[in-house]
Amino acid sequence: MSATANSTKQPYAYVAEFESASDLYHAAEKVRDAGFRKWDVHTPYPVHGMDHAMGMKKSWLSAIVLGGGLTGFLTAFVLEFFTQVKLYPTVVQNKPTNLFTVPAFFPVMFELTILFSAFATLFGLLIVLLLPRWNHPLFESELFSKFSDDGFILVIESRDPKFRVEKTRELLESAGAKSVELLEA
Amino acid sequence: MANGTTDQAAAHPSEAEGVAREPLVLNNRSFSWVTNQICSIVENRQPLGWWFLFIPSVLLAGCLGFTLVYLVSTGVGVWGNNQPVAWGWAIVNFVFWIGIGHAGTLISAILFLTRQRWRTSVNRASEAMTLFAVVCAGIFPGFHVGRFWMVWFLAPVPNANAIWQNFKSPLLWDVFAVSTYFTVSVIFWYIGLIPDLATLRDRARTKIRKMAYGFFALGWRGGNRQWQHYEMGYLLLAALSTPLVLSVHSVVSFDFATSIVPGWHTTIFPPYFVAGAIFGGFAMVLTLMIPCRRIYGLQDMITMKHIDNMAKIILLTGSIVGYAYIMELFISYYSASKYETDAFHLRILSGPYTPYYYCMFFCNVISPQIFWFEKARKNLVVVFIVANFVNAGMWFERFVIIPTSISIDFLPGQWGIYHPSWVEMLMFAGTFGLFLSLFLLFLRFLPVIAIAEVKGVLPQADPHYHDWKKLKEGRRAGA
Lengths: 185, 479
Hints:
The structure holds two protein chains of two kinds. Chain A is an alpha+beta fold. Chain A has helices at residues 21-33, 50-54, 61-87, 102-128, 165-174, and strands spanning 11-18, 39-42, 152-157, 179-184. Chain A has five helices and four strands. Chain A starts with 10 loop residues before the first strand and ends with a strand. The mean pLDDT of chain A is 88. Chain B has a single domain, classed as Up-down Bundle (Formate dehydrogenase/DMSO reductase fold), CATH 1.20.1630. In chain B, helix 4 runs antiparallel to helix 6 (123-144) and helix 10 (269-295) packs antiparallel against helix 15. The longest helix of chain B is centred in the middle third of the chain and has 34 residues, at 170-203. Chain B is globular and about 90 Å long. The two termini of chain B are 38 Å apart. Mean pLDDT of chain B is 89; it is low at 1-11. Chains A and B meet through helix 1, strand 2, helix 2, helix 3 and helix 4 of A and helix 2, helix 7, helix 9, helix 17 and helix 18 of B.
């Protein structure tokens, strides 16, 4: 797919397939120790422990969601307190409308906290994942597309400062890659 | 892929250490077997049985459309509602459907947080079931407002006189709870679908399929730098949905519990409703999944272990519900309140709806007790029959709670027996048509089992699986 005679094409990445999750895990440790930065492993399911093998930190998505939750909570409080107590107090069933009405506002405050947090999770996730992105050089690779079935794929991008056409291939092969493809884009 | 067995899955550490558990996926299946088995449902023609179910379902859903048009064009008088029973089948059916919707989130969120890995085979279908049940539920209160075109009064915007909704009312809480529940369930379901949509995209042979699945897969590439955030997002949604699912049916129960009607004014309602919702929801999951696994050959993924676990949950929640029924009776006696004792006297002994109470009691409390026996839990016919008893019983429960409590009110002048009209009956039947049509379309177009998650629970998914295997072989060679 990739190697064409078109001279405008540059190496984009090495796509390497490994036999199993274990092989990929050990290969990831080697690539991590070799000091690469612009690389990733692509797997059909999240391989647990891979974050450690790749030397990654904890996801910071939770911070966005906390922000969303607080926004929802405050929105509900302002909506209820402002409309019910300040703007137009409606006395229903002889129940008062003042500061002490707040317990009756809890259910809506709770629901909006959850609702806004869920939206923050969805949109925060799309932002940190840089999705949607329907076009990507990796989609040109036949080998890569196996990731969604049973392929354990390791990709090292050429924009990594440590990327060398010969040496990186050797590294991947010595790490036990089943097949290695130089993808051009 | 007739034979997808691999030698990889020969033995897992847990099995060798003598703490063997039944595997979650039977027959040592490989990753690609899982992909093929689930994707082929969507990619191939549907079996004849699908059409036999789909066509009547759509026709029945058409009846729903017809009754709704008839209702709006004529007026709510076509329902059997009267004074004092303003909440007839409409609210019974609303609570029934919203209750069914609870099992999906329970399976996907609570069982996820408690690390019950068996959930992976059934969570997708139950989440879909949740959404469709909530759609059916939402129809009833929407049309029960009477003038459907005024339904926007439910939204938090002031009306023409600048009067806002009453935020102290449980009915408004209900609007927020149910709409939040639906929205969060859709988000949870969709995020779970993204990796599987990418699988379908990569397998697609026609351009339209590739475009359609590719569009919704958002360009998912399955990189660990994506999975890391994805898993965090999924965990957060599970953590958010867990209190949400408990709150929704609690809020629904507040509609009754915060009133001063004898038979409704009960503090036990929130936990009793939540247990009942989970109970009824699992029954519906079983009702759908038992035929589904058979028709599509999913027995290796939805195993007898899954059926067994769900039957146990039905036994547990059914017993909780039974406890609540008896406790309600005890409290009405112990309260020494004349109205309260009379309400329950009418409910169980001499009221117009007494037979419904015993139907409810038999279906919900007695029939699941057979699940104490393992033989019954592992017999699909028994499980299917009991699940349907529970489906019916949970409907009876809502009927027993609603019309019996309000048809005979404080003053004899307020008494009025309620009978549903044909419009209500056809409408309720129509929601089953809508529910089944949506579920069958889901089976047709989306992966019924979470492919990526099932792969994650295979033994060879563990990154140390092969290391361990080598170690074991080395030991064997050394000895």
